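Two proteins were folded this term; both appear here.
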Amino acid sequence: MMVRDEIIDQVEEEEEEEEVDKGEPNGKEQPPRGNAEQSPTIDGRETVVGEWTEAMVGKEKDLLQAVIGQRGRWNFLLFFICSYGSLISAMQTMSYQVLGATPDYWCHVDQLLEANWTTQQILHFAIPFNNKTKKHEGCQMYDYNYTTAVAMGYDEAMVTLTPNRPPLVPCQHRDYDLSVYKSTITTEWDLVCERRAMYSTTQAATHIGKLAGSFLLGYIMDMYGRRRIVLVCSFLHILTAFGMCFSINIWFFIILKVFVTSTAAGVYLGLFITQMETCISKDRSLFATMYALPWTVGYMLIPGIAYWVRSWKWLQAALSLPCLVLIAHYWLLPESPRWLVLQGRYDEALKLLKQAANMNGNVPPSDGTILTAMHTIYKKEPSTKTHTGLVKILCDYVAILRLKKLRIRALIIFGCWFTCALVYYGVSLNATNLSTDVYLYMFLGGLLEVPSYVLLWPAIAFFGRVKSLAGLIFTCGVSILIVACIIFFLPEAPVWIATLLSLLGKMAITAASHLVVLFTAELFPTYYRSIAIGEASLCGGIGSISSPYINDILGEKVAWAPSLLFGVASLLAGVVSFLLPETRGQNMPETSDFDQDKGGGRDNKAFAIESPEIKRQQQQHTDKNIDANGTKMVRDAVNMESGKKMEHKQENGTTEMEDTKL
């Protein structure tokens, strides 16, 4: 969810490469190469404009490759520095099940405890037994006169009083089985029964923090740089992560949890962007996939640490210790050279790139040549994103739903994002409802994410995006539905069967969650791409926030219900995803292909978006109607001829989409 801007950049660069292959970079004819022209001066130094810069001008990915060469020691060292943020993020995001584990619990009966009745005697006499769950109730007890029962003794009370059971009353206090866990946030603040929603809110706070951190800090990084924000977020993350150990109540814990995960999102996002901006374009898919692997390592470390540390405060402290390594980023983490160039800080970018070149054993071009290319990049792209008014931003987000083809396409992909996030976190944190070992389930869940990443890329290359996405989501749905059937119809079946099927579903939905991000970037034209992924991320956030409430509140009442809901949602998403168009081997869609359709024939002027393509066409139309002088007439003729060539090219080069494929 947090990597959408980098995916947008990568897809747009692939568009440019396709145009270059056709001989028309960026859709314009390039001037012929020649000898060096008049040399501009930057920071008092004369630069050189020659054949190399004419080929590479304005393309930072080529500049990076020309200076530092192919991937080398510097790239892999930076990867290890940056990918640590993925490990930290996993350890603070997925620790919910062990920090808040819920052991067996029952009503606290003072009189019986003071009379030295054993736990089993109290359960048999005072606590009702639920035949469906095969457990004693934890929220109610019989309303006996317990003073009379104590006077009788256990044996006589069972014979005399139990035949006529009194009404049930809510528990005032509870006792917990502490044979497995010494303490959890559940036992600390009694987060069961009528307070169960507070338990789910602690996990929802995790996703709220991630969502807020991704949206807010992404814009701040554009203004103040990646390195600075990573360092600030690292410092705040360490403080709040250790601060959670000293939480005085559940609300304090929840507030700190939001700060912990939002700062973790800032660290993750900043390091990921730095990683993507310091590798050449053809290596981005490789490093993006590798960046996810430390997440699985952090995921698998949680049950290993929790197995030995059974008190939640000490466990939180142990999970926070790896965060201290983030301090090393002050000395090890460089600023993104791309961001430095866009800020006009050429000397710093030049120094960094030359250091990288030396470590990779590459001989870079001259300083003047590099500085010239940097200057051209700076002129072509502003240092920060252009922010228009709030009304314009809102209109942009509404516009994607006003265009008929985009609306249907967007609604389907939004549903896929919601389902993937809902099911991923729902299945990952569903060990309690499966009655399986939490530690083993978490470890295997993290381990199986590795083949999910590794097998995804050959799958989409062979089957394509649509079949792969639908197949993965459908596989998850079938697996989880079988789990629901086992829990409902075969409650005595071996636990490992349901566990294995649940993990198979998790493996499939993990791969689908990664694929849906790439697919979204390929489905929408350039102007709407950022808007689409932003809205889709929001839908995914809603799904992840919803999952703990389904698992904890619904699952506690009906153990098979969460699996049924996750399975049905996956099947529906898998079916509707077949309606999406295949993008494998297809040119990226153009904005003008969709701007002609305003949906249903209604007036959409209030929501119309004047994309760059529309403005260009309108300007050409205006120019053709101006006949002010002979020069203008000549230009009109040239424009008309160019338009015919462009139309001819589009007719021959653009693949028509089938009507049933939106």
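Next, the second protein.
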Amino acid sequence: MSWKAVMLLFVGILLSAGLVVAAIMALLFRASGGPVEAGDQVLQEIWNGNLARAYDLTAPAFRKDTSAEEFGRFVEQWRLTEAKSRTWHTRSVSGDAGFARATVRLDSEHKVPLVFEAEREGETWRVTVISIEVENYPLPIPPGTLVRIGRGGVVEKQ
């Protein structure tokens, strides 16, 4: 074999390996995307001013333990309707449950660290819990502020 043939074979093997790695990464990213998609849908409806639709997109377990009024209070207290953007950081899925961490940047340049827990219902992922990462929030949180809503009920800052 000539050196050109060896070089072409080597490049072909490298490209093939790269494609396989990229395909595996895409599958892993897609497999863990359910909580992100569910959280993103809820946030998008909040930003569109449609709190009723955002609430309806949550899981039945969320709605069972958190009223629409409590949901609205959480959104208002954390000024989520003022958000300019969100960045998704960490995501994890195990079976039909998972979570995703996001930072929501407000108009005033404040950032709200959120955690969305979600479960798969058939082919659809739904948010079961929304909570504030209190330890990562840069400002003091007044007592009585909602820091967790969804399945398991509402939790206020003590």
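Residues 35-156 form a domain with the Nuclear Transport Factor 2; Chain: A, fold (CATH 3.10.450.50). The chain has two domains: 1-31, 35-156. These notes refer to the second protein only.
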